[in-house]
Design brief:
Helix content: 10-25%
CATH architecture of the largest domain: 2-Layer Sandwich
Distance between the termini: 32 Å
Radius of gyration: 22 Å
Strand content: 15-25%
Largest sheet: 9 strands, mixed
Amino acid sequence: MGGNTRGKKFGVKKDASKQEDRSEGLKRPRTRSGQSSNESKGHFSRKMDDQKFKSSGNARKQFSQGDRKKSHGKFLQDQHFEGFKARGKAEDELIRLNKYLSIAGICSRREADKFIADGLVTVNGEVVTELGTKVKQTDVVKYAGEPVKAETVRYLLLNKPKDCITTMDDERGRNTVVGLVKNACKERVYPVGRLDRNTTGLLLLTNDGDISKKLTHPSHDVRKVYHVILDKPVTKNDLQKLESGIELEDGIAKADAALYVGDGSVREEVGIEIHSGRNRIVRRMFEALGYNVYRLDRVVFAGLSKKGLPRGRWRFLTEKEIAYLKML
């Protein structure tokens, strides 16, 4: 690939960005290069070569959207569990026992089948081992002797800020992602995967065990895109190394695409697309090449983008987004 081509794949819509600034009355800080913060966040130009990302989705469209602080009230509509809502009486509606356990946040459906076969689940005081058993809302279901109640399924998308850890609680009193969404719903939601304390960007939280396991299992190759700011200019040769593969202590790590941000004039900023879910994979790849990562921001996760979601804010997924995740 020619040197000039690689530098042009990440474009910045300066005129459009300035127009948004005037229309929204926002003050955007300037970077070292004189660009506004949104201009330097890795937006693609319309001239970008889509072939790089052809097998992984429309990256150009997702990258070209900035963190516009538009109203996102339309997203604050929850997707409620409809399992027990019926055309007749709700208490008479039947649901498979493994799904019931999954909705309750106990485990995934596949794991529930194993627990049922092992005799760990009771319905109305009777041990149930037959797979495919269905229960009603009024049935008393217990797992390992503890009562289980199916909850409303929640899906929250958080734009994680810096200095926030991906855990349920912290004994040292540090900010957690769960603390940021504690008033979102009464159900207890869990982060899908992890982001380092100083890594920002998209993080999904849910009590849907099936979705959580699907998005974190290596076999599903969930697509992720990051905007990376380094301590020094990245060479074209190193971009090619990221795509061909880097030898790490736990094996070869390879990016699906690694490109300069903007028009390529700021060589310290790179956009990288990757499917691997290994721990600190992006940071370790750049460190192996002799770079220090100043900032790491996840801008795309499993087809979900940051459009209309300011840093530190969250929203519920739309029905369309939920359906898409279930199809992965």
